[in-house]
Design goal:
By secondary structure, the chain is an alpha/beta fold. The chain is built from six helices and 13 strands. The longest helix is centred in the N-terminal third of the chain and has 15 residues.
């Protein structure tokens, strides 16, 4: 089974709006079309935050109407640009904020809501970490766990981004490291770039935005004009989880 992961859509009320030479709504159309055309076995889509660019209800309705044209079951997480109450207004049989059910292939998936209303940085709630620990303690059929967040839990090497590392990330990481027989893959957004870091039994990934990209390893805000927007495909098996980033040709 494969899952598509997209993030940081930044859709606004005005679907023709251009920012950093990118029309976010059109690039989202291109991305979803590429996923549908090139990956027929993908049934689940995870969107890890910053759906909206202007907190407007219209921006979420644009996304809902667009997603309705595709066969994916969709799981949402809010980001720092999102209004959770407005985002919840587009939930239906296709779109939810629930974890993806991967019990049939014996893999546990868990969503962390890291957004803090009105703030750029993220925060992991201790109650959510303890809920995950309960699930981990009750695991009997798998040692493979995938986690989704909006904010990164580890530095990506860009000073201006790393200033907003998710609060309580060290607590979660130390908790996961204590489960030595389990393998964790953590996928996030927020940073508008592809990154990877491995720490013992934990692998950390960030996925490119579906619109403009941030220049990696930059001390200050900078747009990367050399790469296109994209998505990540996560391939799931009983004994292994693999993933790759695919850029959409402009």
């Amino acid at each position: 089974m494969d899952i598509a992961h997209i993030t940081d859509l930044h859709i606004s009320k005005d679907i023709t709006q251009k920012k950093h030479s990118c029309v976010a709504y059109q690039s989202l159309i291109d991305t979803l079309s590429a996923i549908e055309s090139n990956h027929k076995n993908i049934k689940n889509l995870v969107i890890t935050g910053d759906l909206s660019s202007d907190y407007s209800l219209e921006s979420y309705l644009h996304i809902k109407n667009l997603l309705g044209k595709y066969p994916f079951k969709v799981s949402l997480l809010p980001g720092n640009h999102d209004d959770l109450k407005k985002m919840e207004m587009i939930l239906d049989e296709q779109i939810s904020i629930e974890n993806i059910d991967l019990s049939d292939i014996k893999i546990l998936a868990y969503n962390f809501d890291t957004h803090v209303p009105g703030r750029v940085h993220g925060k992991l709630q201790e109650s959510d970490i303890k809920n995950l620990m309960q699930e981990l303690n009750n695991l009997k059929t798998t040692n493979q766990i995938i986690l989704f967040t909006h904010h990164p839990l580890v530095p990506v090497g860009s000073k201006w981004i790393d200033e907003h590392i998710c609060e309580n990330s060290e607590f979660l990481i130390e908790t996961l490291l204590s489960y030595k027989k389990l393998n964790f893959q953590i996928f996030c957004g927020h940073v508008h770039q592809d990154s990877y870091l491995k720490k013992n039994n934990i692998e950390f990934y960030s996925t490119p935005s579906t619109c403009y990209q941030f220049k990696p390893y930059s001390d200050e805000f900078d747009i990367d004009k050399n790469v296109s927007y994209g998505y990540r495909v996560i391939s799931l098996q009983d004994t292994a989880i693999n993933s790759k980033v695919i850029r959409v040709v402009r």
